[in-house]
Design goal:
Order of helices and strands: HEHEEEEEEEHHHEEEEEEEEH
Number of strands: 16
Distance between the termini: 85 Å
Radius of gyration: 26 Å
Mean pLDDT: 84
Structural class: alpha+beta
Helix content: 10-25%
Number of domains: 2
Number of helices: 6
Low-confidence stretches: 142-154
């Protein structure tokens, strides 16, 4: 290499270094705002929070319901139904009763489950009424078409009361069982945060309590993932994912208002949003003056009879 060429290369490198040092080759970019974190919490303490939720044995409450239809989400189309009111009664381990009505239409639906079987009575529209019952452990993919071709009717027919139980009464996690494996790890996720008319990208940090269960074949399969938001006061539970056999994501629940202003955990969240991917619907439920562990609830509350002589649809007979 000639001396002149070496000097020329040195000059080029010096100029490039000067440009980089002066910032001439950089540009400002917009990044999600990293939200500050709450103090760390041990894995044992997080698991203990799920155990503490088991103190809620029964719930009786008026509720506000908002139903959304996601069955056409592959085309980017959804449907939001007008809000409705309801009466909800829950009792561990698996009893539920939910009555739904609208101010102008009257009773829309009534449903119950005892942990093994469910019953759903559809009252609206009146020309498509039905009294549906089946097994909690079975899937009935042809229910919608057997009732009606109308989209709103099939949406009501797809509701299953037992699907709400894990979200409204999170199940206990037997952490000492040899058939259960659990771990806690941290993750971050970019999200859109909206406050009034202002929206911005933020980065939230979560603790994930991951629970797996050994199947009959000896394989480990996911069962639950509990999300605790480290960017909110008290690091509250804000999301629960429930998995079925084969690792299929069956339910995604989001919670709001579990933590008080001082970070203490309340017995119930202010609201729960339940998303069922397989059935293509989401249901947002807001508690209104709930009673936690009331003195007594009669067993008759969880019994639904066909008093209106609706058309009976036995899903087991159909299948």
């Amino acid at each position: 290499m000639k001396i002149g060429s070496a000097r020329w290369i040195a000059v080029v490198w010096l100029c490039a270094g000067a440009l980089l040092a002066s910032g001439c080759l950089t540009s400002r970019v917009t990044l999600p705002r990293l939200l500050p974190l709450e103090p760390p919490i041990s894995a044992t303490a997080l698991a203990g929070r799920i155990a503490d939720l088991q103190q809620v044995q029964t719930i009786r409450s008026a509720v506000q319901l908002q139903f959304s239809d996601y069955r056409d989400s592959a085309r980017g189309i959804g449907k939001a139904y007008p809000s409705a009111t309801g009466a909800l009664v829950l009792r561990r381990p698996q009893s539920i009763r939910l009555q739904v009505q609208a101010s102008l239409l009257g009773s829309l639906a009534d449903m119950t489950s005892d942990g093994e079987r469910f019953t759903v009575a559809i009252f609206y529209p009146t020309d498509r009424q039905a009294f549906i019952h089946g097994s909690n452990l079975k899937r009935y993919p042809v229910v919608a078409s057997s009732l009606s071709e109308r989209q709103d009717v099939s949406a009501f027919a797809g509701l299953r009361p037992q699907h709400l139980l894990n979200s409204l009464l999170p199940p206990p996690v037997p952490l000492d069982s040899p058939e259960i494996s659990w771990s806690v790890f941290e993750t971050r996720r970019d999200e859109v945060e909206t406050a009034g008319t202002h929206s911005e990208w933020v980065t939230r940090t979560y603790y994930l309590l991951y629970v797996a269960q050994r199947s009959a074949s000896g394989q480990w399969q996911p069962r639950f993932t509990y999300w605790f938001d480290r960017t909110l006061t008290g690091t509250p539970l804000t999301r629960l994912e429930v998995f079925e056999d084969g690792g299929v994501l069956s339910t995604v629940s989001e919670f709001g208002g579990y933590a008080t202003s001082d970070g203490a955990m309340k017995a119930l969240p202010a609201w729960v949003r339940i998303f069922r991917p397989a059935e293509g619907y989401a249901l947002r439920l807001t508690f209104q003056s709930p009673e936690v562990n009331p003195a007594s609830i009669s067993d008759d509350v969880f019994t639904l009879t066909n008093d209106r002589n609706l058309k009976v649809i036995d899903l087991d007979a159909q299948s």
